[in-house]
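Practice problem 4.
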């Protein structure tokens, strides 16, 4: 087997090779294979070293630089002993895929974001796969996994991962991810994987020993930036592209969600995102199934999703925080932080996002203290390229107590949030448990093995929220195992009381979206909105359909301007429009009607 590594600063590179354990490499002692084998410089690729050695699936190995200790491979396909342990060989050909799969694109999709470690109390990919039937019954088309790369300890969000080719062992490792994807495909579900390119975890991150993977030219909230434009950045970009393609090729994932692309510091003429999108499109052509990239972007820059032939970067879609912020202020009345701009006139903000895509499209942002964004060309950008959501892991988990909307809103208001999200023009996305108004919070939790880092994270989290008026003792300790335990979904409650009712409402709306073509019309310019903030009602026109929402506690008359319309779905009993063309909606309720 050929072992290769990029280590441009090293004078000597040795391969430390150990045999596989009897159980395949997950437990037990390993068999030492002697002193390190010297690697030779690759004459074709400056900075690269290579060596041939006998190895098989499960064989553990590492690279020793200039006589130092063995370090895990930067391109390690498996870390059986965690980020600081030796790497292990993975023979991807050994896995037997049982489901023929031609792919499932993002057009007309409904996504479901889940965190493997809290979706079930077991916190494994196999346990999550056992719950895929729930998602099929719900009607979603894609499951979006939060990051699965290795990180220190057992439990965490996954955004401090390292080893961008590997799968967190407590989740089940590489084989478990393949089993999950295979099971999802057997159920007809596409799989989206969240990947983090803008930073890597501070603990267990050995990349700086190998080469200039990071640069002080730019700085991010997490420290030195990933090197996308300084000397050595060609190889770093290739490293990230290679990792992305590995998930799509070796694990048969259908799309990748790219975390915080606005934090990718890149001044080169050809942006990294364009390079990555071109590589993904080429792989899709090669393997004959659709693949996609979804950006989390704070830039409000439509060029991210405009095709490369039209001067854009060519990604498939992006998250739309503007829709979330507008909807959140309408539902909750909150006005702190980045909600301030939306809270000035929340109903108008929601109207603008539903009809224009972005709220900030060159307008002044008080949160940023400057103008932000640029207009989205509704002719060039179909509505489905934006993802719309009422809740995400970020918007729940980055609250001091990780409280969901269900902690403060009535079931009726939750139903209104679902109606606006699932009948809206954007590709809908749900956050796990939202569909049954889960009572469990989703809090920030870590399991750092470095006591100094654990203490810094704990103190930093409390200081952050203390600055916003929270008492330190009210901010959950991320390192306390109880914080993760509280965040695990309670699957027993989905069949009880208002939880069951909310779940049925989500199923009804998703089925309606699938059945009625007007709800997946990509023409954003065709969306029409009317509202009366004083009365508390909001109405959306999607072709022949009317979505009406009443957030007031009392009944209201909503003027539809049509006399003949059938009620397709309603949270509370609703009659069709009267002679004056108005619909009477009970307090905190919503309905979908079809014009005859």
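Answer key:
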């Amino acid at each position: 087997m050929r072992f290769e590594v990029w280590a441009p600063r090293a004078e000597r590179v040795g391969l430390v090779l150990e045999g596989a354990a009897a159980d395949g490499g997950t437990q037990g002692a390993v068999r030492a294979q002697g002193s390190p084998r010297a690697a030779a410089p690759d004459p074709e690729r400056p900075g690269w070293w290579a060596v041939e050695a006998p190895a098989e699936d499960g064989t553990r190995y590492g690279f020793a630089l200039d006589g130092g200790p063995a370090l895990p491979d930067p391109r390690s396909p498996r870390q059986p002993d965690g980020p600081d342990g030796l790497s292990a060989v993975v023979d991807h050909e050994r896995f037997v895929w049982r489901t023929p799969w031609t792919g499932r694109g993002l057009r007309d999709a409904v996504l479901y974001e889940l965190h493997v470690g809290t979706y079930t109390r077991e916190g494994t990919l196999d346990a999550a796969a056992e719950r895929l039937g729930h998602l099929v019954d719900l009607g979603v088309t894609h499951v979006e996994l939060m990051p699965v790369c290795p990180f220190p300890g057992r439990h965490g969000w996954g955004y401090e991962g390292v080893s961008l080719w590997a799968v967190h062992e407590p989740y089940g490792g590489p084989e478990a991810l393949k089993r999950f994807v295979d099971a999802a495909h057997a159920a007809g579900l596409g799989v989206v994987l969240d990947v983090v390119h803008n930073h890597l975890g501070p603990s267990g991150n050995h990349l700086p020993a190998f080469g200039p993977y990071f640069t002080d030219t730019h700085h991010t909230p997490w420290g030195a930036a990933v090197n996308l434009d300084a000397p050595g950045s060609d190889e770093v970009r290739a490293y990230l592209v290679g990792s992305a393609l590995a998930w799509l090729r070796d694990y048969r994932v259908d799309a990748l969600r790219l975390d915080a692309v606005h934090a990718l510091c890149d001044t080169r003429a050809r942006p990294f995102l364009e390079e990555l999108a071109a590589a993904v499109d080429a792989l899709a052509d090669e393997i004959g199934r659709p693949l996609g990239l979804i950006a989390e972007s704070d830039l409000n820059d439509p060029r991210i999703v405009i095709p490369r032939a039209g001067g854009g970067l060519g990604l498939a879609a992006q998250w739309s925080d503007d829709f979330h912020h507008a909807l959140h202020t309408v539902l909750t009345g909150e006005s702190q932080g980045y909600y301030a701009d939306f809270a000035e006139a929340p109903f108008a903000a929601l109207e603008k996002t539903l009809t224009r895509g972005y709220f900030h499209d060159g307008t002044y942002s008080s949160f940023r203290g400057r103008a932000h964004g640029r207009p989205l060309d509704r002719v060039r950008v179909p509505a489905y390229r934006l993802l719309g959501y009422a809740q995400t892991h970020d918007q729940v988990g980055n609250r001091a107590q990780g409280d969901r909307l269900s902690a403060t809103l009535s079931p009726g208001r939750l139903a209104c949030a679902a109606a606006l999200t699932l009948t809206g023009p954007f590709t809908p996305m749900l956050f796990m448990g939202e569909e049954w108004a889960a009572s469990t919070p989703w809090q920030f939790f870590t399991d750092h093995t470095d006591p100094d880092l654990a203490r810094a994270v704990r103190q930093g989290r409390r200081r952050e929220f203390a600055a916003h008026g929270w008492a330190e003792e009210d901010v959950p300790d991320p390192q306390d195992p109880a914080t993760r335990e509280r965040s695990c979904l309670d699957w027993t409650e989905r069949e009880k009381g208002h939880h069951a009712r909310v779940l049925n409402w989500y199923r009804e709306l998703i089925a309606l979206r699938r059945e009625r073509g007007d709800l997946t019309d990509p023409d954003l310019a065709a969306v029409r909105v009317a509202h009366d903030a004083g009365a508390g009602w909001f109405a959306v026109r999607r072709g022949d359909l009317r979505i009406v929402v009443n957030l007031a506690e009392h009944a209201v008359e909503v003027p539809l301007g049509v006399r003949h319309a059938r009620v397709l779905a309603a949270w509370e009993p609703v009659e069709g429009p009267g002679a004056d063309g108005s619909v009477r909606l009970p307090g905190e309720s919503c309905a979908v009607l079809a014009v005859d």
